[in-house]
Amino acid sequence: MNRSEAFQQYQKAYKSGQKYCRACMISGRYPYIRVLDELIDESTLIGRMDLGVMEIPTELIVGTKHAERRLAFAANYMPLLPSDTEFAAKWISLCSAHLGDEGINDPISCYEYMGEFYVQEGHKRVSVLRSYGAAGVSARVVRLVPAYSDDVRVRVYYEFIDFFALTKLYTVHFRRTGGYAKLIEALGYEPGHVWTDAERQSFSASFMRFGEAYRKLNRDRLPVTAAEALLVWLRVYKMPDMKPMTMPELTKSIESVWADIRLLAADEPIAVETEPPEPTAEAARRGLLTRIIEPLPGHLNVAFVHAFRPEASQWTSTHDLGRQYLESQLGELISVKTYAPEQGQDPAELMEKAVSEGADVIFATAPPLIGQCLKTAALHPDVRVLNCSLSMPYASIRTYYCRTYEAKFITGAIAGAMCRSGRIGYVANYPILGVPASINAFALGAKMTNPDARIDLRWSCVDSSPVADFVREGITVISNRDAIAAGQASYVWDWGTYLRREDGSLSPLASPCWDWGKFYERVVRSIMDGTWDLSAERAGERAVNYWWGMKSGVIDVQLSPDLPSGVRQLAWILKRGLRGGVIDPFHCAITDQSGKERNDGWQWLKPEEVLHMDWLCDNVEGSIPRFEELLPMSHSLVRLLGVYRDDLPPVKEEKLAAKQEEKQE
């Protein structure tokens, strides 16, 4: 390149810098490169790390170490000084060398702070390279390490440091904690695996293509990083799937999960629907217009996909009872098929089979099927997919569960009324979302009828014989596992709340029970009458999570015929109050185990606050078990729905088959 061509390049870069600077000023952004010395206090740093010479992304070079270079460059590192200055002459000389025989070989010197780079020496080299769109530059890097704090940015940065030590990648960025570990897991690597050059190059090439496609799609400028979008994509696809894809095919695959990517930008990604939607006059009018354009279905093919066969699982059996109720209510308006795995069969395969056989609606009745639900929804957007789980931030599917704590409040009140010793045993199953709310509602119900009642809390996922322990300790009123469905309770050691009499015999008191058929009927009817869209309308661009209570009929309390008449009458009063919305278990003065006031007695807790409770009332003796205390059989469910799921380290497992295939190529 001769000097005349380099001069023209400078003029082009100069205009770009001026334009960028003006745009920043108009939008209220800082127009110049940032100055590291003004951003940090050296006393807040805990160390420096010499990382040596490496290739760094030019897009992450955001500033300068010292202030004297600030006004020479716009924030995009394009020059701001006129072409007749000494600065411009040196820039032009470097530009000529860049495309000449010599090239720009000397590495720049820079500092890395919080994942971004600040140049100490080599500003013009960076500017020249960026004017040509160079992706990287050789740099001698010194990392400045901030003191650890509760600041989310600092916590994420510390996770990045660990990620970088394994991968030597600077291009992967997350805004929230846990992202780097989840990416490692999603790619099939064990925690602590050090990437080879081949693994790094393979990922970088695919990630670059993904980032290019994602940025073109992100017309709304969502504050979602390419790495965060990739994690959503990896729920449906695998990294090797990207290699044979053309760019239009890759773009289409990202579009298939775009609704879930968009949720990452939302402050509240989940809309918790606590009651079935009732159509308003305006909604009915709009629904009529919709039906003219797109008629509502007169017949639906409904599929139920289970993780276990009904005869092998009482949980599945309950949902199958719901299926039978649905068929009895809607008759010829629907065709229903049930898919349950044979021994050794992967239940995830069944969902694709359901689609291939014409399913319009799929109810996946177990939380572990959530992954396949997401894949099905992405690959078959015309199929409505629902998964029986809680608090899932996915707009492409809907989740459903019920407010068990309302029924637990009633059984707690019954237990308090029937208890003479003041100690009530409570067996909880897993420390998952909604369970602390059930424990607390039970404790508050017991306190209402017996102010001195203490709830002795044990966990079946930790101790294999909590009921036997209660018996040895002389506890006579015990709340054990709930009846799965009305009529299924045997009222022995396994189900419900019961009283142990002096002769050792057991007397049933009450148990929460589910009637999933009511839910399935309401949902299917909502699709057929057009009110299905009301939930999406209410939610906006958030995920729809159904969390219905006693008013809907999905959850109820089965009362023993042997209950004393006064206690039975109290239970019915509480039932009517909960169904009518005039009673709320948590609309009262509440203090937790640490003495912290959780409610002064006048506040109504939001559904999200109840669902995500991770504390226990002051009349509960016991605690929420740590993950390492749990029996192995409960790990997968707690990872999926646990109250502390976002803080759990990734699973240490063997590399995925896809990873093995990649190594063989």
TrEMBL record:
Keyword Signal: yes
GO CC terms of this entry: plasma membrane
InterPro entries: ABC-Purine-Binding (IPR052910), PnrA-like (IPR003760)
Record's keyword terms, sorted: Signal
Domain of life: Bacteria
Coiled-coil positions: none
Domain (ABC transporter substrate-binding protein PnrA-like): residue spans on this chain: 313-459
This protein's name: BMP family ABC transporter substrate-binding protein
